[in-house]
Amino acid sequence: MHDTPARPSRQKDTPPESPLHLTPRTPASPALGRRDLITRAAAIAGGAALIGAADLARPRPARAVTAPRVYTRAEWDARPPTSPATIIKAPDHLIVHHMAFPNSTDYSLAHAFQLSRDCQDLHMDDNGWSDTGQQLTISRGGFVMEGRNRTLEAIGQRKNVFGAQCANENGHTLGVENEGTYTTELPPAALWDSLVQTLAWLCDLYGLSASTAIVGHRDYNSTTQCPGDALYAQLPRLRSEVAAQLGAAAPAARTAAVRRSGLPGPRTLGDHGPAVGAADPRP
């Protein structure tokens, strides 16, 4: 990893949260009314968040999607935000980022937790934001972690939080930050597998199509290479593998050659391109 400036003594991010284990929705019969839909509880923010009060339009997959193990902010010892995140409507796109951090060979859980703390420090202390910008983080060891505060609370309601991860598009997108820099290298298998599982879970939860909802940061902000030329070239394969997890038919993904885009890569640690724009509120 990298050297980080000394942080203030960390207080527990409150309220304490328990691990998220959301169960994917079961297919609803066309004859059922809203009152017949299944309500489930997920332990989030120390209380129960009710799931399943509204049905989403996409036809349900033939197989259940297993939710990833998402480590909470309490587990990675997050600093309290300077202001709470705002819960907003469900996202219509899921944005794949590279974190523009080193491609560490430490794949441990302890490293993953330190990564989340380092990212939060960068966003709060250097960028002046209220908290970590992205909603979810995946380490190179494949550990999935909650990012911005209230993210798991919002996901438990099939909603989203207003983040700081894609300039002028934060009001309708959810960002998944992947540890590493993928301008020329590809993510390790553990990260890739967790990314596929996480995106399949989110597509199922929000009723999104993998073929249209999964995009790279540069698809919205054309002044960045994020998620890196190498990883961006694999997005067709990523969409195909997520569709397979959903039990949906998808065209065979081609193995795309890495082409240099000429777009700017990271200039500094954590620089994955524009995260906040003029249309976004103060992050």
Structure explained in plain terms:
It is a single chain. The chain has 283 residues and is an alpha/beta fold. It has one domain (34-245): Lysozyme-like, CATH 3.40.80. The chain has helices at residues 73-76, 109-126, 151-156, 189-206, 210-213, 229-232, 235-245; strands at 40-44, 47-51, 70-71, 87-88, 93-98, 136-138, 144-146, 160-161, 173-178, 214-216. The protein has a 6-stranded mixed sheet, sandwiched between helices. A two-stranded antiparallel sheet has the order 1-2. The protein has a two-stranded antiparallel ribbon with strand order 4-8. The protein starts with 39 loop residues before the first strand and ends in a 38-residue tail after the last helix.
Q: In one word, what is the shape?
A: globular
> How large is the count of helical segments?
7
Q: Please identify which CATH superfamily we are dealing with.
A: Peptidoglycan recognition protein-like
Sheet-strand content, in percent, reads: 5-15%
The CATH level-2 architecture is identified as 3-Layer(aba) Sandwich
Structural class: alpha/beta
Brief write-up:
The chain is α/β, with parallel strands linked by helices and 283 residues long. It has a single domain (34-245), classed as Lysozyme-like (3-Layer(aba) Sandwich), CATH 3.40.80.
Which terms summarize this structure?
single chain, 283 residues, alpha/beta, Lysozyme-like, two-stranded antiparallel sheet, 13% strand
